[in-house]
Amino acid sequence: MSQGEVPRLHVSGTFPTILLSSLLFFLLVGQSAGDGYLLYTCTNKANFTNSSAFQDNLDLILSKLSAAAANTGFYNDTAGRIPDKVYSLFLCRGDVNLDICQTCVQAASQDLVKVCPYQKEANIWYDQCMLRYSNRPIFSTLDLDPSRSGYPNQSSNVSGHVEQLDRALNKTFTDIIARAAFSTSIKFATGEAAFDTLRTVYCLAQCTPDISGSDCYLCLNTAKAYLGKCCDGNERAAQLWPNCVLRYSIYPFYQPKAPPPSLSTNATATVIQVIKEPNSSHLPIIIATSTVMVFLLLSTVFYLRSRRRNGRRMRRSNPNVNDVDEIISVEYLQFEFNLIRAATNNFSTANKIGQGGFGCVYKGTFSTGQNVAVKRLSKNFGQGEVEFKNEIVLVAKLQHKNLVQLLGFCIQGEERLLIYEFVQNTSLDNFIFDPTKCSQLNWSTRHKIIRGIARGLLYLHEDSRIKIIHRDLKASNILLDDEMNPKISDFGMARLFVVDQTQANTSRIVGTYGYMAPEYAMHGHFSVKSDVFSFGVLLLEIVSGKKNNYSHQSESSENLLSHAWRYWNEGTLLELMDTTLINNYSGHEVLRCIHIGLLCVQENTVDRPTMASVVHMLSCNSENLPIPSAPAFFIPTTREGDLPPREHYSSTTESSTSKPLLSTNNVSITELHPR
């Protein structure tokens, strides 16, 4: 918006309403950096230079976004090619019209390059819109970093009514978060609630439409948790993520109804004419409006001067506010028991989709149509609540497309429930070990599943800020979505590691025979390399379609690993491949996957690759791989005393004489015993 231009607004009401709305908009969406936006972030991971290819692409994409805002409230696009490719998107507030949207996006495009000069990733949030760009893919992916909490120039609070405000916010947020995530295509909802006899709190929730409903739900609930920490008792506050916004204020800041038709050019001219040539009937209005203008102008000046000071104070008082891996208060993820009971039809047998040592898994459907998987812990399971809380703390912090998402939980008396996203195509074991269904997994799909599991495990080991060791990676703990993308599930046995910790011991062995690394099965030593071993077994099972039928009661080495090693020595590795793949496979990829699987199941932990190396080896087909040595065929002795006593084991034995537990949506049904 050029200086002096009268913004076009879709407003209704009398003359003072029009003039005041115009003034408010002009102040909130100013023409220079610093007086229009709420907050911004610059990611200092990579910079570009003036007149570079990246800058040309950035200029191009910002111009395209500004033009697109005339026709839509959300838009994403790219410009250029890697390594100078730019990904960018904007999102306008769900209640604003396209004129305001375009003006806001234009201002954001100009301001963002000023406040984040020569940086390849940046985000900016206005009252009416947000805009971001990056040198990495950002579409359809939930990002909870970077973020901003609080509100510029926030100093007032609702003293004496904090508890009432908190109750009103909790109830209203719960409602609008569900509506934004699951009830609307634009992922936008507002709501109001009275919190004392005279005042009302106004709440708004919105997500970028490109993310899924479950991602939106998780993003907004995480925002709700952060608002509870940073802004308790404030008159207004906002939690701003790249993919979602959650705001409230005791003053109206959005339009409760759809905006009326645009203010015409003649109407704008009339407004200007009235200001220039006032008459007696307009004089009281003009005096009142002038007073408001002076007040708002002084407030804006105060805001500009105190912005930087308040930002520093906010960071000092809450230094971890941007730490996505901070433990989220579980109360913000809690579902009402009656809601879950209704969604599962009172936990009916018809809705039951799995059963294991922890309890049963049910499919639930909310009134919005959203499907979930509900894990109902056994009431007589001694350590159920401990495992339950452990899983909440762990899974709520993990954000990756190859991990099953925890949506929330419920506690009601003895009832302990976990609510997960519903994954459509059941678990991997129901496909690769089924003589009929295995034909549905061609080689391309199996290779995609292998790579997805590897990326999910890499995230657990290295890319999340808290190191996670799964300890029970197996085919029944890999779920497949409607596009056969893998999602790792069941973190009930995961062990939380600090960043610099690499190994730990346990006196209780938990896991599944056939997948457990020898150092873990024999001595209770587990590390990231224990998961690597399990991944290697799983990889060989996916390629071969055969289960690693290991039994600790047998000295026979005739299991999947020994077969693979024999084929390696004979130079006939393709004989290990599932026969259903014979007419449709890539010989080079199959051989490379078997090779990587053998590297992962080496008996010595130092000989096994890290998951980072595995992901690289799966992606780079031209690089030579190390030569594997003999894998750990079996625990190399059955002499009494070499194995921990049987009662020290807590695992699911899947031998040829025991029927494995299968599920249709196996969120977490590993048969366990208390540690």
Automatic annotation (TrEMBL):
Catalysed reactions listed for this entry: L-threonyl-[protein] + ATP = O-phospho-L-threonyl-[protein] + ADP + H(+); L-seryl-[protein] + ATP = O-phospho-L-seryl-[protein] + ADP + H(+)
Gene Ontology terms for molecular function: ATP binding; protein serine/threonine kinase activity
Residues noted as binding ATP in the record, renumbered to the chain: 375
Matches recorded under InterPro entries: GNK2, GNK2_sf, Kinase-like_dom_sf, Prot_kinase_dom, Protein_kinase_ATP_BS, Ser-Thr/Tyr_kinase_cat_dom, Ser/Thr_kinase_AS
UniProt xrefs under Pfam families: PK_Tyr_Ser-Thr (PF07714), Stress-antifung (PF01657)
Location relative to the cell: Membrane
Keyword annotations from UniProtKB, A to Z: ATP-binding, Glycoprotein, Kinase, Membrane, Nucleotide-binding, Phosphoprotein, Repeat, Serine/threonine-protein kinase, Signal, Transferase, Transmembrane, Transmembrane helix
Gene Ontology CC terms, in alphabetical order: plasma membrane
Signal peptide positions (record): 1-34
UniProt-listed Gene3D superfamilies: Gnk2 domain, C-X8-C-X2-C motif, Phosphorylase Kinase, domain 1, Transferase(Phosphotransferase) domain 1
Domain Gnk2-homologous: 36-138, 146-253
Ranges of compositional bias, category Low complexity: 650-664
Principal localisation: membrane
Biological process terms in GO annotation: immune response; response to stress; signal transduction
Region annotation Disordered: where it falls in the sequence: 641-675
Recorded topology in the membrane: Single-pass membrane protein
Annotated transmembrane regions: 283-304
The protein, known as: Receptor-like protein kinase At4g00960
Gene this chain is encoded by: LOC104612351
